[in-house]
Amino acid sequence: MLHIFNSLTGKKEPFEPINPPFVGMYVCGPTVYNHVHLGNARTFMSFDVVFRYLRYLDFKVRYVRNITDVGHLENDADEGEDKISKRARIEQLEPMEIVQQYTVGFHNIMAQFNALPPSIEPSATGHIVEQIQMVQDILNNGWAYESNGSVYFDVKKYIDAGHDYGKLSGRNVDELFSGTRALDGQSEKRNPMDFALWKKASSEHIMRWPSPWGDGFPGWHLECSVMSTKYLGDAFDIHGGGMDLKFPHHECEVAQCNAAHGTDAVNVWMHANMLTLNGKRMSKSTGNTLLPQEIFSGENPFLSKPYHPMVLRFFMLQAHYRSTLDISDAALLAAEKGYNRLHEALGMLSDLPTSASSTIDVDHWGERFAAAMNDDFNTPVLIAELFDAVKEIHRIKSGEAAISSDDLQRFDTLLADYVYSVLGLQPQSEKNSNDSLEKLDAALQVLIHLRNQARADKNWALSDDIRDQLMEKGIVLKDGKDGTTYTIQS
Ligand code: AMP
Ligand code: ZN
Prior knowledge:
It is a single chain. This protein is an alpha/beta fold. The chain has 16 helices and 15 strands. The protein has 3 domains: 270 residues, 3-Layer(aba) Sandwich (Rossmann fold); 137 residues, Isoleucyl-tRNA Synthetase, Domain 1 (Orthogonal Bundle); 55 residues, no CATH class. Strand 3, helix 1 and strand 4 form a beta-alpha-beta unit. Helix 4 crosses helix 8 and helix 12 packs antiparallel against helix 13. The protein is globular. The chain starts with a strand and ends with a strand. The model has no long low-confidence stretch (mean pLDDT 93). Adenosine monophosphate binds next to helix 1 and strand 9.
């Protein structure tokens, strides 16, 4: 049975969906004001494996991952400029141009990492009405107050009423209160720990919406409470995100849901650990980052060569999602070797000699792989088991072990399930892309042949149509004395 480490209880717990076979999972998505870095990608890949394994277990998963396109201010204390607005100002673009550009970039990178798209990808700006409604609910229930056109969550009142603010992040409330700097008398907040549900927009603030409290914009934590419960219900199974989001973001989400609906909303909280570079957390704000594109192209002095996205994926899956992982060129070189060795062995499967009976027990291998994943998605253990299977493949090849043809087929399916469906690895792409290019070339030769036939039949309408339609798709045909050739425009 699948066990998941629940950050709320600090324990691995058997996973029991609220409404099987359905599973609702919400993961905090990126703030799209800049390129996603490899650290962001690691967190999304960790949850991609969770999504994939739940599907492999035949759960019907609704995976919601949001796009933060408003409300995330430069620091966590409800101050500073909106990250998206700031970038828009610097680049002299509309905020929504920034959002579009980096959302497309994010999708593109995640596709290269072979991450499955979520079932729903809602954006904060697309849910302003629902966010205003939740602020209103929290106000009506008495857990928030309006101050100068902004609305703040009243943390002290919430705690005084017996709620355990800090239960998710493990923060001690007294320390929290003494650790935050005192209010300067100018503050709109009753208490420094209070957080914004709605912020009044200053006159120069361009991302603004009308609300019962005047023109403003939602607080960052609100969108996730709103969109998770809108699409998954007031009680849902899994909420994930990076470890750095535990406080204040997720702690505030718990408080908001309790204040609005009277429940925590989330059954299992999952937190993925950080990717580090030179021992320090990879982070957009400090500039200690590597971008996925730099790794795929090798254009970074940190790297001795380019690495394929699948090598990166393999590298990340060699660590457990709750452990930190430090990236280095040496570690990537080692991952590349391991990844190639695994694929070489999988490639040998179809040519293995078969015997009347097997010395290997395929079911037992299935149990070992499942045990690894059932233990809180333990991908490093699964990979170690897969390498044991690689040794077995080599033994079969050299005649030291035997496998029947039935078992070989089952073994092949089992390995493909775990390597491709669960871990989401793909065969090295050169072969893939060469195969696809060959197929594209063959298809174009068929079209050229048909067009030549149309010309021979003096069917100019058809021959022109073929040429024009291809041209529209960026494929230009050229008629020369040696026949027709084509070029593909990028
Ligand atoms: P952001 O775009 O900053 O809101 O971050 C998007 C996601 O990436 C969040 O879940 C963060 O927790 C996660 N994240 C940020 N930095 C790292 C890192 N160095 N390693 C792993 N995940 C990270
Ligand atoms: Zn969130």
